Amino acid sequence: MPEVVRTARDMIAGMTPKLTQGAFGFITAADPALIEELSPQAISTFKEEEGISLIVPVEVAEAAGLDAAHSMRCITLNVYSSLEGVGLTAAVSTALGEAGIPCNMVAAYHHDHVFVPTDKAAKAMEVLALLQSRAN
Predict the structure, then answer these.
(1) Which fold has domain 1-18+77-136?
(2) 1 pLDDT exceeds 70?
(3) What span, in angstroms and rounded, lies between the C-alpha atoms of 59 and 64?
(4) Measured between alpha carbons, how far is residue 82 from residues 45, 89, 107, 124 in Å?
(5) 53 phi and psi, to 5 degrees?
(6) What is the pLDDT of residues 21-79, one digit of tens each?
(7) Which residues sit opposite 133 in a β-bridge?
């Protein structure tokens, strides 16, 4: 595994954003049968007080009869950032916010993932590339 970086500058300089294939929908479910049906196809789940939040491919949400009107694209930040690192999420969300692009950040063990509206994904990639180039 590559070196894990901890400083904001190193995380931003090495983030190398990549737009993943497909579009995703954020949904919530409390029905155990629906959760069981969708969980194997979810790329992420989170248990909240109101139910289980799932991030699923838009086609999966639509096939289940769920609202997938807010289609999102996932941009993976391909830097191995420390779980104790400070500044990457703030820098990314600030840069996107200043460009008028809403984002939802999902941090996993190896990488951080940024979900942006499908129609703003190309612009988001430009913003993140510029942010990375400024850190180098």
Answers:
(1) VC0802-like (3.30.2130)
(2) no
(3) 9
(4) 21, 12, 11, 23
(5) -90, 135
(6) 999 999 999 999 999 999 999 999 999 999 999 999 999 999 999 988 799 999 999 99
(7) none
Structure tokens at 3: 């070196």
CATH 3.30.2130.10 in the chain is located at 1-18+77-136
Which contiguous run of DSSP H or E holds residue 5?
none
Average pLDDT of the chain to the nearest whole number:
95
Q: What is the DSSP string of 82-124?
A: -TT--SHHHHHHHHHHHTT---EEEE-SS-EEEEEEGGGHHHH
Residue 111 sits at the vertex; the CA angle it makes with 107 and 112, to the nearest 5 degrees, is 40
* Structure token pair of residue 27: 């949904």
Q: How far is CA 108 from CA 80, 93, 98, in A?
A: 10, 16, 25
